[in-house]
Automatic annotation (TrEMBL), chain B:
Keywords for this protein: ATP-binding, Nucleotide-binding, Transport
Protein name stated in the entry: Dipeptide/oligopeptide/nickel ABC transporter ATP-binding protein
Residue span, ABC transporter domain: 6-256
Source organism (scientific name): Pseudarthrobacter enclensis
A Pfam match: oligo_HPY
Length: 374, 343
């Protein structure tokens, strides 16, 4: 949205078979993604019509509070959902292939060479009974058919790449012999072993101390630059998004409620939830001042209202919000006095599906033009 | 500064543990901690995991006995008390825990959880009627309904559970509440609600808080004074603004710099990224404990442990830091990043 010239010159998503990723190429395009969970109280929709795109060499943040569906989205992308979860709708186009249409067996070919994932809790994500060398080498043995010795050599290389000291001796250690930060480095090494096009990092630093968090974030940045990976960073931390991400998709109750370039979204939020989140952070306040918190709590999954998902906590709520769920539509500039233009914009946006060169600013709110900035 | 309600002098605590890699069996969790907490004041306690924050909190709750040092609470040493006097003292320091899902007994109702302290401190609300009324009052004080007393913890959200934890801590009308990471398990929007509640309660009741947190943004918002801990020592302490704006200890500067900032102005921020991780408290480095990760470390740092010294900022404000080569207050973070970058 920030430059029309960019849109014309930048290449669009290539057809299947295109190999090298150029900076800012769309690597992953997700649209209409829906995930159902079968519970004993009936089927609930945990992710509802989520769409976004990730670009080579850029970081897309999925931001939201617990239970908003961000981790479920990541699992759906990676094809590692729990047995009670179903991919109900949507397409996940990774470099020209729709992963959602593949069988689980076919998807396995993509796990590693095309797509890597880093989990939050490094201790539970690593297998305690195998050495880290065995676990790091696994990708090479399966996908590159290397023997154990070659795989170990690759594992040592990987450990060096992610900054683990003395990799030659540490390669034979077990996960519990590493500190939290080092375990996270090992997980990252596993994810980037085969130079994937897309790296999903699910709260990679939440369990870590702040000085170690800074190290891990620096490592992720370096690896992203080296491999021109597209990174999807899943987090609940606004400050991490502000520092690390290029674009952001804000999720609430299974829906993307706002998305766009981070600097624009955070400077001028167009959804009341984003605005509320930003105001909940205690910055630029006198000590003891009231924080402008969001009242209430998010809706339960089996109890999501039919209209706008945010209606019960929204200060701007009107009758239309209870009756009709607002669609995600372009919401870059205020044009409250030109409602007709909005409709045109909305239609063209749905047709385009956001394949244009730069991320479009969108918000799912009936009154996004009326949100004023403090 | 308000008159100190609680003051600690040279507090040390050593745990005896199974043999470490170096054959050391003594873990010095607290090493000469001194600090004060004034009435109605909030002291922020900051540091990475394993630095001794929780041991300090447990010692103040008298769950651990210190090896050395003194604790003085309005002039009396709680560790010298016995019987009824000890019971009366225990009433005055209470705690709120980090995880609102683990810290409430799932088999008790919210009302029973809040009323449980009175089973020990019987004289406070002697009749069942008085207890029931007080439970209702406390629930309303923390923003819940009196009728919620009959519900069990599972029926509440995380933020509401933390409110119940706060109500339980308030049940004995304490003078000091130790808040151990009270909002770090909560979502951002709920976190703001709980911080507001804590702030209102402090204004209303004049209670002092010891606020343990790793979230520097939150600490800056709530704490009047702050103490930064590293491997069992307080390496820097002073008024919050003073310490945050003019950190003198390299570790404090690194900690400030490492914590992500919500700033989208696009200004490139210089960052200090420390090498390595917290050394094992079983084998702390000789001399200055931070020297293994410090970019200013020299030979003397390995030999002599720095003493706390009073440092004066250009605006005349002073605070304590333990460092042989404290950072220049006038230049603050800029000089620190330049030095770190030069390495």
């Amino acid at each position: 949205m920030n430059s029309a010239a960019d849109q014309a010159t930048l290449p669009r998503t290539g057809p299947a078979g295109v190999t090298a990723s150029q900076p800012h190429d769309v690597v992953l395009q997700v649209s209409g993604l829906a995930v159902d969970i079968r519970t004993h109280r009936g089927t609930v929709r945990a992710v509802n019509g989520v769409g976004f795109e990730a670009r080579a060499g850029e970081t897309l943040a999925l931001l939201g509070e617990s239970g908003c569906g961000k981790s479920m989205t990541a699992k759906a992308l990676a094809g590692i959902m729990d047995p009670v979860c179903d991919l109900a709708e949507g397409t996940i186009v990774l470099n020209g292939t729709d992963l959602a249409a593949l069988t689980p067996k076919e998807r396995l070919k993509f796990a590693g060479p095309e797509l890597g994932i880093v989990f939050q809790d490094a201790l539970t994500a690593l297998n305690p009974v195998y050495t880290v060398g065995t676990q790091l080498g696994e990708a090479f043995r399966i996908h590159r058919k290397l023997n154990a010795k070659q795989a170990k050599a690759e594992a040592i290389d990987l450990m060096r790449r992610v900054g683990i000291p003395e990799p030659e001796s540490r390669v034979n250690s077990y996960p519990h012999q590493f500190s939290g930060g080092m375990r996270q480095r090992i997980l990252i090494a596993m994810a980037v072993a085969l130079n994937p096009r897309l790296l999903i990092a699910d709260e990679p630093t939440t369990a870590l101390d702040v000085t170690v968090q800074a190290q891990i974030m620096q490592l992720l940045r370096t690896l992203r630059e080296e491999g021109q990976m597209a990174v999807i960073l899943i987090t609940h931390d606004l400050a991490v998004v502000a520092e690390e991400a290029d674009s952001v998709a804000v999720m609430y109750a299974g829906n993307v409620v706002e998305s766009g370039p981070v600097a624009e979204v955070f400077a001028d939020p167009r959804h009341p939830y984003t605005k509320g989140l930003l105001e909940s952070v205690p910055v630029n306040l006198e000590r003891g001042d009231q924080l402008r918190s969001i009242p209430g709590s998010p809706p339960e999954l089996h109890d999501i209202p039919s209209g706008c998902v945010y209606q019960s906590r929204c200060p701007l709520v009107q009758d239309i919000c209870r009756a009709q769920r607002p669609a995600l539509r372009p919401a870059g500039r205020r044009r409250a006095d030109n409602a007709a233009a909005d409709v045109d914009q909305a239609t063209s946006a749905t047709n385009d599906g956001g394949t244009a060169g730069r991320p479009v600013r969108t918000a799912a709110c009936h009154f996004s033009e009326e949100i004023t900035n403090a | 500064m308000p008159e100190p309600l609680l003051s600690i002098e040279g507090l040390s605590k050593t745990f005896h543990v199974a043999k470490s890699a170096s054959g050391n069996t003594r873990l010095r969790a607290l090493d000469g901690i001194s600090l004060t907490v004034g009435r109605g004041e909030t002291l922020g306690l900051v540091g990475e995991s394993g630095c001794g924050k929780s041991t300090l909190a447990r010692t103040l709750m008298m769950l651990e006995t210190p090896d050395e040092g003194t604790v003085s609470f309005e002039g009396t040493n709680p560790f010298g008390l016995k019987g009824k006097e000890l019971l009366a003292w225990r009433r005055r320091v209470q705690m709120v825990f980090q995880d609102p899902f683990a810290s409430l007994n799932a088999r008790m109702s919210a009302g029973d959880i809040i009323a449980e302290p009175w089973a020990t401190h019987r004289s406070l609300y002697p009749t069942a009627k008085a207890r029931a009324d007080r439970v209702g009052e406390l629930l309303q004080m923390v923003g819940l309904r009196a009728s919620d007393a009959r519900k069990s913890p599972q029926e509440f959200s995380g933020g509401q559970r933390q409110r119940i934890g706060i109500a339980r801590a308030l049940a004995l009308n304490p003078d000091v509440i130790i808040l151990d990471e009270p909002v770090s398990a909560l979502d951002l929007s709920v976190q703001a609600q709980v911080l507001n509640l804590l702030n209102e309660l402090q204004k209303e009741l004049g209670v002092s808080y010891i606020f343990i947190s790793h979230d520097l943004t939150v600490v800056r918002h709530v704490a009047d004074r702050v103490a930064v801990m590293y491997l069992g020592r307080i390496i820097e302490t002073g008024e919050t603004e003073e310490v945050f704006d003019h950190p003198r200890h390299p570790y404090t500067a690194a900690l400030m710099s490492a914590s992500p900032k919500l700033d989208v102005s696009g200004a490139q921020r210089e960052r200090i990224v420390l090498k390595g991780e917290l050394p094992s408290p079983l084998d702390p480095p000789s001399g200055c404990r931070f020297r293994t990760r410090c970019w200013k470390a020299q030979d003397i740092c390995a030999e002599v442990a720095p003493e706390p010294q009073v440092l004066t900022a250009p605006d005349g404000r002073r605070h304590l830091a333990e460092c042989h080569f404290p950072l220049d207050a006038a230049k603050g973070l800029t000089s620190a990043t330049a030095a770190a970058g030069a390495l």
